[in-house]
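re: that complex we talked abt at group meeting.

here r the seqs, copy pasted straight from the sheet so there may be weird spacing, ignore it
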Amino acid sequence: MNVEDRLRAALRGTADLVEDRPRPLPAARRRIGRRFVVPAWSALAAAVVMLTPSALPDHPGGPGGPDAVASADGGIGAAPQFFVAIYPATEFREARWESRRTASGEVLGGAPAGPGEMYVSVTGVPEHRAAAARSFLLLTRTGEGSRPGCARYRVYAIHLDDDGRFLSWNPEDVDFEAADGAPAHLATTAKGDEIAYSYRECGVPGGQRIAHHWNGTTTTWDAGGSVLSLAYTPDGQGVVVFQRGDDGGELLVSRTYDPSDTTVLLREHAKALGDHAGDLLSAGLTPDGERITAVLGAPAGGVSVLRVAELRKNGDLLGVTYREPAVETPRDGAVQVDQHRGGPELLVQAGGTILLPGSVSKAVVLDDPPPTDLAW
Amino acid sequence: MESERVVRWAAAVPERERLPAFYREQQTGLVRLAMMLVGDEVTAEDVVQDVFVRLHRSAPVLRDEAKLLAYVRAAVLNGCRSVLRRRRLARRHAEWYEPPVWSAESEAMLGEDHRAVMRALHRLPRRKREVLVLRFYADLSDEEIAVALRVRPSTVRSTLSRALSALERELRDAP
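got the structure back, here u go
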């Protein structure tokens, strides 16, 4: 008997020791290797945190250090019951969007993109449409463009029920050609009737541009940096841009009726943030438009300590929340942050971890490539 | 394109409803596969069940059952590697765990030649061991093994050839 036959026979004999019988799935996750020692560093690395600036006091942070804020009940506060995340294609899966339960990360629904398609950015429509409980807009790469290096992009609306399940969809009146593979971001107003997006012009060297689309008319302007997030001001009159330029990250507002009318709200090296070392990873306005929320990251070994600072629009620091240890440092350093209109909770995604609102040590750690974007 | 999208999105997900049937069909084969690598049935069951519990929570959008099986198989292999890593640590801390079925201490009824082959197999490096199990137990093609191990098919072919030679040496040199 040659080695192959001996091996085949031995494997078959070993397999036969396992009886073919029903093995009911346990209701809760079973711990593997519970007989084994878990090293201290491993437990430390597995602990993940949740960050929220909620209920920050309306006074500057004291010298004793930042205030750590989290609800004790593990609830999600006023946050929506589910969020939508978009994922790139892998060898096992097509590119797709998924709706996930906010409190647990459980997948509630989703759909794959078509051949050659990918989802680039997602944003929530705060006010409901028709029978749908929630609507989201997806900026979708639909195929190759008319010239090499270009691609077609289109915005689609998806409508989900109370349980996060897919109900219907429709194309929006935003269809354009831009550079293929360039990062792009999407934003919409409360009613979803105005849409802003960032893109890089096709075949034209230079930086990114921002477009504001309303009632069949599109206005575009130079971003002046690399756009990392977009949002509308609560009154819908301005586009809030967080971008990275030569001087680091900055948060600014451009008026939609006159994009040259721009106000810088926060710069990376703002004096108010000086005591809280770290890179400015993301920033935006609170739902009332009165405050600035800034997410800072400080590398510490293989993880980043994330902090959320809240400032007045005049730059005064109101307070900082944080927990340690934090999250595994994303390979590209990108952190996605979304804030819903109904409350102060933040949805934060860093690398393969989505931090869930409500309590400390609550997160979804993903096995697959992390989502490209997410939205409430 | 737009009409295709209607069908695609309407038929979508979550596939959680299909998972129980898929689990019932595949669980014994997957437990057997895990057993080849971790050595005892209880741990092998734990590995497979853990994969399915995670799958239930995060049902992937996969309408092609072959892709789903490939995905699950890769996840089981990952689970087995985690168990073996933890065992190495446990040995350092003199922790007890179930002896593998091919060990002399095991009460499992495995013939002596089968024990010798399995012991030799488990003296090989992880990659060689996995390739041999996937080929000679699971009967997977080079391409299917490449997907499960996330390597190129050419790497599978070269590893397979070297692994068989190494196994032969181990069997010859075994006391």
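couple things i noticed - Chain A is about 5% helix and 45% strand. Helices of chain A lie at 3-15, 40-46.
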